[in-house]
């Protein structure tokens, strides 16, 4: 099948690419889009309505309210880009987008100043009881002494996360006569020093000196719930806490308890664990608390910031739909969009090849005693790709998925090399000049696993052989046709099957009655067969002795089944009836 490179969508295309914008995005960027694209602004859609209309769109532009879920991305068959008009992409399922070849872009710097100014506004509001005072005077009261505040000059601002927003807040606070200290394990010490911010190495060190504590990290595993009851207890009772980053980093129940019991003087909160908060939940009780100044996620909501992020992401959408490189891609920073799209079916193929290898050929004893080196070879049109990083990442992911917990496995082009190194997986990639079109394919991928004794083991402890040889090699080969991956070689066998779902793979002598025997046993076990494929020995392979004195050729039988096959059923296939080996793999 020809290797297709999707043509960039041009202005002159018969129908213009369509962009869906289900949230309020500033018109400045939209004006740029409208020159060459069909732009549909549809606010207030329910998730169900969004799911229904998304298949017709090439691009989706969102802010923080739209949840770009795996379900939505699966329904969005034409989608090429999700653009986040802002910084945080925690409302976008980036992993699924990556798997589906959808580029996610954001605007990493368009709203920094807005978020920093909002932090300062909340700091001043908590210091001077602005929220409470405003409510009081509107209620017809005149409560001057109850509402006496504090000054920020001479106080210490403690910052968690000295990134773009954190540093901007620090500079403004220092300008108001405050001392700035920060805790950020990844901060650049010289940049901190240049901004007159003192870095602290631990959270307790930071908490104990804070008159105001402000959080400016992303919401990730290490920051989720980082300020709980224990941390609040380490702060001065006169301290105030601010959060203009993300809900979920401060334990809302612990914060409410601290405020109610005078363990903390106040809080200025813009972001909430659940947005919008539900009536009666902890966040709603916090919002109602007189010591809390609350805003509905307004950190980036300034005219200027919205103009910035809108222009930034709209320019990137235009670039991607024209086949060019975006400036701020979250999931594919080093690969051209068209290459990314073309590589996607091969990403799926290589991932399945890796998973097949682990499930069929690797055993725990083997991995402890032997070293496996993987050679990944690309032939045909694939060799013209500028980068094959996504294929490398897919192999690492495929090899590890069957032996990892799903939650912990987030392997992508950014972290694949690191993960491979950490797990001791050696992968050599190479491009072959062989003309595979003669074989009827435009591109072929071959995974060759070479197993040899681990040289790090003391010689006397090394097992004598690997299946009788000093080194052993297994080969899996595949290709893509009409975007569907196929396995064309499985070890010594010339196969042709789609690596998908639950497969029973039997090695048997290629003689009468084997298929009937296996089909019968599966039928008795109430396992339905969805498809069957026979893989004969490759032409160069020899016949072997079949146990009854005759020479016979071996073959593989690959059966797609509708459910996992029990171990005893699999074992019952092996024996006199000619099945030599049987394994179940899930792909
Ligand atoms: N409320 C809003 O409307 C609004 C607007 C803009 C940004 N934000 C949010 O503000 C946050 C900061 O944005 P940014 O642009 O400054 O991001 P950034 O990536 O520039 O900075 C984040 C900093 O956090 C640090 N960090 C990461 N993990 C940490 C940890 N465990 N402990 C301490 N520091 C850690 C990083 O090293 C980095 O320096 C993000 O969550 C962003 O989504 C909110
Ligand atoms: O991550 C961001 O950029 C901010 O939280 C802003 O979100 P918003 O676009 O929904 O205002």
TrEMBL record:
One Pfam family name is PGDH_inter
E.C. designation(s): 1.1.1.95
- D-3-phosphoglycerate dehydrogenase ASB domain: from which residue to which, for each copy? 343-451
Q: Which residues form the D-isomer specific 2-hydroxyacid dehydrogenase NAD-binding domain?
A: 120-299
Catalytic activity line of the entry: (2R)-3-phosphoglycerate + NAD(+) = 3-phosphooxypyruvate + NADH + H(+)
Gene Ontology biological process: L-serine biosynthetic process
InterPro entries cross-referenced by the UniProt entry: ACT-like_dom_sf, ASB_dom_sf, D-isomer_2_OHA_DH_cat_dom, D-isomer_DH_CS, D-isomer_DH_NAD-bd, NAD(P)-bd_dom_sf, PGDH, PGDH_ASB_dom
Which positions fall inside the D-isomer specific 2-hydroxyacid dehydrogenase catalytic domain? 19-331
Q: Which domain of life is it from?
A: Eukaryota
Q: What class of enzyme is it?
A: oxidoreductase
UniProtKB keywords: Acetylation, Amino-acid biosynthesis, NAD, Oxidoreductase, Phosphoprotein, Serine biosynthesis
Keyword Acetylation applies: yes
Q: In which pathway does it act?
A: Amino-acid biosynthesis; L-serine biosynthesis; L-serine from 3-phospho-D-glycerate: step 1/3
Q: What quaternary structure, including any partners, is listed in this protein's UniProt entry? A: Homotetramer.
Family to which the UniProt record says this protein belongs:
Belongs to the D-isomer specific 2-hydroxyacid dehydrogenase family.
Q: Can you name this protein?
A: D-3-phosphoglycerate dehydrogenase
**Phylogenetic placement of the source organism:** Eukaryota, Fungi, Dikarya, Ascomycota, Pezizomycotina
């Amino acid at each position: 099948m020809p290797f297709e490179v999707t043509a960039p969508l041009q202005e002159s295309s018969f129908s213009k690419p369509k962009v869906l914008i289900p949230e309020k995005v500033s018109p400045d960027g939209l004006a740029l889009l409208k020159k060459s694209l069909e732009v549909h602004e549809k606010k207030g859609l329910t998730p169900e309505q969004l799911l229904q209309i998304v298949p017709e769109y090439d691009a989706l532009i969102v802010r923080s309210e739209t949840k770009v879920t795996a379900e939505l991305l699966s329904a969005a068959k034409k989608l090429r880009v999700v653009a986040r008009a802002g910084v945080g992409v925690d409302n976008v399922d980036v992993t699924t987008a990556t798997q589906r070849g959808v580029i996610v872009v954001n605007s990493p710097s368009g709203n920094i100043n807005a978020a920093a100014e909002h932090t300062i506004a909340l700091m001043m509001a908590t210091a001077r009881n602005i929220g409470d005072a405003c409510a009081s005077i509107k209620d017809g009261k005149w409560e001057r002494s109850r509402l006496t505040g504090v000054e920020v000059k001479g106080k210490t601002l403690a910052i968690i996360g000295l990134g773009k927003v954190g540093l901007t807040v620090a500079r403004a606070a220092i300008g108001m006569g405050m001392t700035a200290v920060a805790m950020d394990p990844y901060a650049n010490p010289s940049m901190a020093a240049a901004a007159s911010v003192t870095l602290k190495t631990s959270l307790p060190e930071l908490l104990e000196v804070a008159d105001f504590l402000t959080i400016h990290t992303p919401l990730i595993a290490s920051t989720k719930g980082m300020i709980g009851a224990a941390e609040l207890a380490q702060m001065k009772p006169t301290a105030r806490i601010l959060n203009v980053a993300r809900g979920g980093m401060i334990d809302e129940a612990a914060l409410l308890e601290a405020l109610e019991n005078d363990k903390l003087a106040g809080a200025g909160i813009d972001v909430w664990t659940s947005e919008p908060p539900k009536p009666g939940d902890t966040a709603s009780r916090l919002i109602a608390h007189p010591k809390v100044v609350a805003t509905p996620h307004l950190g980036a909501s300034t005219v200027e910031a919205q103009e910035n992020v809108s222009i930034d992401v709209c320019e990137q959408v235009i670039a991607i739909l024209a086949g060019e490189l975006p400036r701020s891609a979250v999931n594919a920073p080093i690969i051209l969009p068209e290459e990314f799209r073309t590589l996607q079916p091969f990403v799926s193929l290589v991932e399945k090849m890796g998973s097949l290898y682990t499930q069929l050929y690797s055993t725990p004893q083997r991995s402890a005693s032997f070293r496996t080196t993987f050679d990944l070879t690309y032939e045909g049109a694939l060799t013209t790709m500028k980068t094959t990083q996504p294929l490398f990442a897919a192999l690492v992911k495929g090899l590890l998925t069957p032996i990892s917990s799903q939650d912990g496995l987030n392997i992508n082009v950014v972290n694949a090399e690191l993960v491979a190194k950490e797990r001791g997986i050696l992968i050599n990639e190479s491009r072959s000049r062989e003309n595979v079109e003669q074989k009827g394919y435009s591109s072929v991928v071959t995974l060759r696993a070479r197993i040899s004794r681990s040289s790090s083991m003391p010689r006397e402890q090394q097992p004598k052989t690997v299946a009788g040889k000093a080194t052993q090699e297994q080969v899996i080969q595949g290709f893509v046709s009409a975007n569907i991956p196929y396995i064309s070689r499985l070890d010594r066998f010339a196969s042709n099957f789609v690596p998908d779902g639950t497969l029973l793979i039997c090695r048997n002598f290629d003689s009468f009655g084997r298929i009937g025997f296996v089909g019968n046993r599966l039928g008795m076990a109430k396992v339905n067969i969805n498809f069957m494929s026979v893989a004969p020995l490759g032409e160069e392979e020899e016949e072997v002795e079949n146990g009854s004195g005759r020479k016979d050729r071996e073959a593989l039988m690959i059966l797609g089944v509708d459910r996992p096959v029990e171990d005893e059923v699999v074992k019952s296939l092996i024996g006199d009836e000619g099945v030599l080996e049987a394994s179940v793999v899930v792909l």
